[in-house]
Description:
By secondary structure, this protein is mostly helical. About 60% of the residues lie in helices and about 0% in strands. It is built from five helices and no strands. Helix 1 (about 5-15) crosses helix 3. The longest helix is centred in the last third of the chain and has 36 residues, at about 100-135.
Amino acid sequence: MTHIESAHLVELALGNDVPHHDDGAALRHIASCERCSAELDRMTRVVGTARRVEEPDLPVAPPERVWEYIAEEIAGTDTKAAAPPRSDPSNRPGGDGSRRSAPTRKRERRNVFLVLVLVVTLAFTWWRRSRSARSSAGGC
């Protein structure tokens, strides 16, 4: 028998009562095939984790001003309405209060945006790994 299709493995992992004409053969194949068994195990863990998600676990949408700022960055516009507040230029390193050129400001904003994306990515990765470690340590 060929390997079990991913869609069939998903249905098995979800526990849906979708009649397949070859469920018995598929289950026998999974019992003897390390690859299909491992894939079904992964899918079953994902389904179990997703079913344990509670409202506090869900991400919170950022404020509208963040989306406006991102849209302006992508469009390349520079309006002060949605830009994040800036501190006094004289407090910045080398801050003599002089205005920076447009390319310099754009580069600074891009760098801030990239650092923000990196921090969010690292936080999400850490959160997923800690959730995964907690779920595997806890259980049956």
